[in-house]
Design brief:
The protein is α/β, with parallel strands linked by helices and 593 residues long. It contains 23 helices and 17 strands. Helix content is 42%, strand content 15%. Helix 1 runs parallel beside helix 5.
Length: 593
């Protein structure tokens, strides 16, 4: 078989992906993937991105898909290259994000005979993918539509019924390079003919709540006063179904306080005067006395399970409360005691439930809701008082980033401390803010690559907040970040290692030397020359005024800027402890009923 027949096979596959709605392809270097890379390059409708590191490439594609809600394809050569996709595959699976992995492979005869750069790539990602398929070796005897059928099927399976990653394994024999004039003259006519006969349009399913679920929940909500609406991690809003609007409508109809995490898409936006929002709920529910006084009768959860430890403890204290979980995919019940799981789109379900309940039940908040309103206001007042100091603090960085993001920006937040600091210290803002996050598997890897990918398709500024340990996990992805066509601001909180562990019991169980050696693990890397090595603008700040200036300047300039926000390593835990102690004492003195 000539090399050009390999290319014809690959071209048909790539053209069908474009016909199926794939718009972005991330190409990693390699020899075995030559036909796929060249085919992608000449396929109309595909935007091609390149990445040296397969791990970063997969997260880059994942970041794109979080914004577009379409599968980006990422392709690599044979051997261990595809194994580097695994962390992003797991995150895509856990967070139900469409992603298409295309691994080039050696032919069957090279497997299990000690051939170089050959491993078993069959079902390489195990149960973490929704679907695995072999593209098949190029075969003149096969129907010309065969590669198109595989492409269409693979792209469709990334989108539903349960969105997530799909793996296509594509085998090729040498020679891999064009040996005849290419692209050939009849390419366009041939592909048009193949796709006309072989393209199947696929409509992805959307799950609606059954009427009996809405009826049962509406009946319960209409006779309950002590209820809460809790919004956990969710993808960036679809324009046609914004979650915040639906959650606010449901809170208005029920009279229940709205508790929304940073990653829920329901935390930021203009305040509704007739709705009680309690964004400080994690802090408040961590106070045993407050949690005990506020026993709920009904909990309505929208989206993935809330990651708040305060809320988890609250559930354990009040196991008899009715709890309805509304999420489109999966068994979203870590505490394993939900009253009901409603497998449906949270925004559409909340809107339908609000419509079924009718106009607001009250003209003013109930005593239950008013108690949450007053406690929330008290918590944010104290948070503001505790956030600032003569030097820059983790609390101040969280507040300044949220306040300083433009109204049209996307905010990407890292796991570990950054997302907790935003929940703890940054109050809701009147302008909306789309939030990107990796709350599927909640890892700290690939954050820079993912934000860089998002920046290529967002058409608006992207701001990433992460810790110094996280940036070391993904430092080489600054090579991807520097290509950002929009302002991409990477804010690194430099607190000398994994300070999240200071807030866990291990910090009190071992001596300081062991704690630093095995847990915080600070690596003293100078980020200034690291940024320079990748051609990324850099600023180091250690005061609020300097940070505000650097942040504002970075948002004016297309391309990437890395801002190192230097904070004292021992400040965060002490500041949180002091704040929570004063809040508990104040709550004990206040009559919130």
């Amino acid at each position: 078989m000539s090399t050009n027949e390999h290319l014809t096979w690959a071209e048909t596959f790539m053209a069908a992906l474009a016909a199926a709605g794939v718009r972005d392809v991330v190409v990693c270097p390699g020899s075995r993937s030559t036909p796929l890379a060249l085919a992608a390059d000449v396929t109309a409708g595909l935007r091609i991105h390149t990445a040296v590191d397969e791990r970063a490439a997969a997260f880059f594609a994942l970041g794109q898909a979080r914004v577009t809600r379409l599968p980006s394809a990422v392709l690599c050569t044979s051997g261990t290259a595809g194994a580097h996709f695994t962390p992003a595959v797991i995150e895509a699976s856990q967070s139900h994000v469409p992603l298409l992995l295309v691994t080039a492979d050696r032919p069957w005869e090279a497997v299990d005979v000690a051939a170089s750069q050959t491993i078993d790539q069959t079902k390489l990602f195990g149960a973490h993918v929704r679907f695995f398929v072999e593209l098949g070796l190029p075969d003149l005897g096969a129907p010309r539509e065969a590669p198109a059928r595989v492409a269409l099927h693979a792209a469709a399976r990334t989108l539903g019924p349960d969105p997530g990653p799909v793996h296509v394994n594509a085998r090729f024999r040498k020679p891999l390079e064009p040996s005849q004039p290419w692209p050939d003259a009849d390419r366009s006519t041939r592909l048009t003919d193949v796709l006309r006969r072989g393209t199947t349009r696929v409509f992805a399913p959307r799950t609606a709540a059954p009427p009996e679920a809405l009826e049962a929940l509406a009946e319960l909500a209409s006779h309950t006063e002590r209820g809460l609406i809790v919004c956990g991690p969710a993808p960036v809003d679809r324009p046609e179904a914004p979650l915040r609007e639906a959650a606010v409508a449901l809170a208005r109809a029920t009279g229940f306080p709205l508790l929304a995490e940073t990653t829920s898409q329901a935390r930021f936006g203009s305040a509704a005067p007739d709705v009680v929002a309690c964004a400080a709920f994690d802090t408040l529910l961590r106070d045993p006395a407050f949690a005990a006084r506020h026993a709920p009768d009904l909990l309505i959860e929208l989206g993935a399970p809330a990651t708040s430890q305060g809320y988890a403890d609250y559930l354990a204290k009040h196991p008899t409360a009715a709890r309805y979980v509304i999420a489109p995919h999966g068994w979203n019940d870590p505490s394993q005691d939900a009253t009901a799981l409603v497998l449906a789109d949270p925004a559409e379900t909340a809107r339908a439930l609000a419509a079924r309940l009718g106009p607001a039940r009250r003209s003013s908040p109930s005593l239950w809701a008013e108690s949450f309103r007053r406690a929330d206001a008290l918590a944010w007042s104290l948070a503001e008082a505790h956030a600032s100091a003569a030097h820059l603090t983790e609390a101040a960085v969280a507040r300044l980033v949220i306040a300083g993001c433009p109204a049209d920006a996307l905010f990407s937040v890292g796991n570990s401390l950054p997302v907790r600091d935003v929940d703890l210290w940054a109050p809701p803002r009147p302008s909306p803010l789309g939030v990107l996050h990796q709350r599927g598997a909640s890892g700290i890897d690939g954050l820079v690559a993912s934000a860089a990918g998002a920046a290529t398709v967002a058409g608006r500024p992207v701001v990433l907040l992460l810790g110094d340990t996280s940036v070391l996990h993904d430092l080489t992805s600054l090579a991807l970040a520097r290509r950002a066509p929009v302002p991409l601001v990477v804010v690194v909180v430099q607190n000398q290692g994994g300070r999240i562990f200071e807030r866990l019991p291990i910090a009190r169980a071992v001596d300081v030397d062991r704690f630093d050696k095995y847990f915080t693990m600070h690596e003293p890397v100078d980020l200034a020359p690291a940024a320079a090595a990748f051609g990324v603008r850099f600023a180091r700040t250690d005061t609020e005024s300097a940070f505000v200036r650097a942040f504002a300047e970075a948002l004016k300039t297309p391309g990437a800027t890395l801002i190192e926000a230097v904070v004292p390593p021992d400040d965060g835990r002490a500041r949180v402890t002091c704040f929570r102690s004063e809040l508990a004492a104040t709550l004990a003195r206040e009559d919130l009923s």
